[in-house]
Amino acid sequence: LDFAGFDVTREYYVNDGGSQVDVLARSVYLRYLEAHGQKVAFEDGTYPGDYLIEVGQALKAKVNDAYIDQGEQVWLAEVREFSTQAMMELIKADLLSLGVKMDVFYSEKSLYGTGRIEAAIDDLRAKNLIYQGVLEPPKGRKPEGWEPRQQTLFKSTDYGDDVDRPVQKSDGSWTYFAPDIAYHYDKVTRGFDLLIDVFGADHGGYVKRMKAAVSALSGGKTLLDVKLTQLVRLYKNGEPFKMSKRAGTFVTLRDVVEQVGADATRFVMLTRKNDAQLDFDFDRVLEQTKENPVFYVQYAHARISSVLRKAVAAGIPVDDVTLISADLASLKDNSELTLVAKLSEFPRLIEISARSNEPHRIAFYLYDLASDFHALWNKGNDMPSLRFLQEGNHATSQSKIALIRATAVVISSGLTILGITPAEEMR
Q1: How many angstroms separate the CA atoms of 421 and 85, rounded?
Q2: I need a surface site. Which of 32, 220, 299, 323 has the fewest CB within 10 A?
Q3: What is the pTM (predicted TM-score) of this model?
Q4: Which residue pairs, CB below 8 angstroms and at least 24 apart, start in 244-252?
């Protein structure tokens, strides 16, 4: 989107305002007790991941034994704040290791007690979309927030949702949906005309109500595109692979990046549409064959860089100003014209990828472009007239080099969009 000319803000919504953060705080408190030599049991949904051991030890270093044998009223609020900060430091470091840089970290907690949730609900109320009512009894599984008593409801069915959604419980507390409405209301008031949310696949049922809220808040002027992401399955030697127990029931992003590097991780992740299951095979990602898309694309760029270096060493001018004026009439072979045709698709591809919010299209395109280039390279091994450096003929060499230099520019641009550094040489 940025490359295509849109004004983009990258924003991370920090879920630090709900009851799950209390669970995090209790989990860290157990690790804090453990750091003091006590034996603990992780119950009531607390998180057993080893990644909290260091957080518990850090809490001990900060407060010593001040929280030992104390009730939650003494330590919960402070441990909650301490734990949230520790998790955000971990998350930011992991994102940075993958080259993901956020412009804004937006705290859910900042919405509570500031009037922002009330303002968003009042906006909907002014549009006659908030009312007191009782939801129909659920058929089978109870929907989130359902109570057999009067609640404050958002008339989301007016905007395509299946049922109206509660925003405030009968006891006056907000549902999970209310701060999410307020967050999106804040985005609408900041002037964004397109919002893109990235959800886990288990939040598929949340899409309709969120789209309904954004449409209602913006008067239909702001679009919301929700991208549901599937889990990634890790494989090694053809078998499901569990790299460590550091994180309890899941493998951290940092574990993967440390194994194969940021560039390979990013490219492989982007070779699938976001809602498609991805099997991440460590052996495949590290092998140097056509079956490894990141290697295949990088190898094409490195090969072109090598040709340019050889051309300079042979005294052939290959600066961009010279190549732009090269006579391309000598490019007649079908393999050369196939590469030209593929290059011509790039501007339109960028437009389509941006408007559909589908970066995987670029990864596929780069692989196909690399394949066309490698085919031309291999054909040149059998047909000397197709080789990029034609001895004693600078004009023909420059026309062929202009073609592959254009290929390198497109590969470099595509990789840069995907957040990957183009390779100048392969080792």
Answers
A1: 31
A2: 220
A3: 0.87
A4: 245/50, 246/49, 246/50, 246/51, 247/49, 247/50, 247/51, 248/47, 248/48, 248/49, 248/50, 248/51, 249/49, 250/49, 252/51, 252/94
Q: Can you read off the two tokens belonging to residue 367?
A: 């692989």
Structure tokens at 94: 């992991």
Residue that the structure tokens 């595509």 belong to: 414
Structure tokens given for 36: 């003091």
Q: Is the CB of residue 151 less than 8 Å from the CB of residue 134?
A: yes
Amino acid at 381: N
77 C-beta neighbours (distance < 10 Å), count:
12
Alpha carbon distance 210, 196 (integer Å): 11
Q: Can you tell me the distance from the alpha carbon of 48 to that of 42, in angstroms, rounded to the nearest whole number?
A: 6
Sheet with 130-133, strands from edge to edge, namely 130-133, 151-154, 165-168
In angstroms, rounded to a whole number, what is the distance separating the alpha carbons of residues 386 and 383?
6
Q: Which residue has the tokens 């929280």?
A: 67
* Phi–psi pair at 278, nearest 5 degrees: -120, 125
Distance between CA atoms of residues 400 and 407, nearest Å: 11
Distance of CA 310 to the CA centre of its chain: 39
Unique residue bearing structure tokens 């050889």: 310
| Contact predicate 153/165, CB 8 Å | yes
For residue 153, list its beta bridge partners: 131, 166
Tell me the β-bridge partners of 229.
200
Q: What is the pLDDT of residue 286?
A: 87
Q: What is the pLDDT of residues 154-178, one digit of tens each?
A: 999 999 999 999 999 888 999 999 9
Residue 129: per-residue pLDDT: 98
CA-to-CA dists, residue 92 to 9, 50, 250, angstroms:
17, 19, 18
pLDDT < 70 stretches in the chain:
138-147, 243-250
What Å distances lie between residue 373 and 12, 317, 394, CA to CA? Answer: 39, 22, 21
SS3 334: helix
Is 180 exposed, middle or buried (CB count within 10 Å of its CB: 0-12, 13-18, 19+)? buried
Alpha-carbon gap, residue 213 to 184, rounded angstroms = 8
Q: Of 413, 398, 256, nearest to 350 (Cα)?
A: 413
Short-list 285, 267, 268, 280, CA closest to 234: 280
